[in-house]
TrEMBL record:
Enzyme class: hydrolase
Organism: Vibrio maritimus
Superkingdom classification of source: Bacteria
Name the UniProt record assigns to this protein: Exodeoxyribonuclease VII large subunit
Any one Gene Ontology BP term: DNA catabolic process
GO cellular component, one term: exodeoxyribonuclease VII complex
Keywords, sorted A to Z: Hydrolase
Disordered: annotated segments: 1-24
GO MF annotations, alphabetized: exodeoxyribonuclease VII activity
Domain Exonuclease VII large subunit C-terminal: 1-190
EC number: 3.1.11.6
Amino acid sequence: MRAPTPSAAAELVSNDTSHKHESLKGREQRLRNVMQIYLAQQKQHLSVLTQALNSHHPKHQLQRQSQLLDEFEFRLSSAIKQRLSQETLRLSNKQHRLMALSPARQLDRQTNRLDQLQARLKQAMQKQLDSAKHQFAVTVGKLDTVSPLATLQRGYSITQDARGQVITNAQSVEVGSAITTKLDNGIIESQVTSIKDHS
């Protein structure tokens, strides 16, 4: 479009420049909005992954197993103490009745019976505790076997894509993809330059 006068031409150029400036500002604002939404989504995704990792970490599973063992030991000890208290009270009542009749031999038998009962209860408690501790040790061993840290310490590595997913198939990545390889003593950031499928 040709302006009839130089002043009109200057006005056209000014209007066009102003229009382009406003358009550029609009695009810049839309780009900022998109980036803010993307960053918020990535932050939320990272938070979810972090919570999932913490909840399945072997350390937390060991802590839960240890708490269960402590709780089991407390309940078993309380039950045995209650049983001993009941037997002691029952024997005490019998002793009072026997002493009223002066049967020394029966009193001795009841005392021996209480001693034997206490010994059996202690043995049962020790057996239950040993069994619980053994089960706990087995659980710890299984957790250590499947622990990612144990895998790394045996000389293996764990490779993840940009989303943090473990790569188990060459078809799940593309050339140019960014990948992260975790070793026992560090992390390697790299980029896929070629893919060779051996299947």
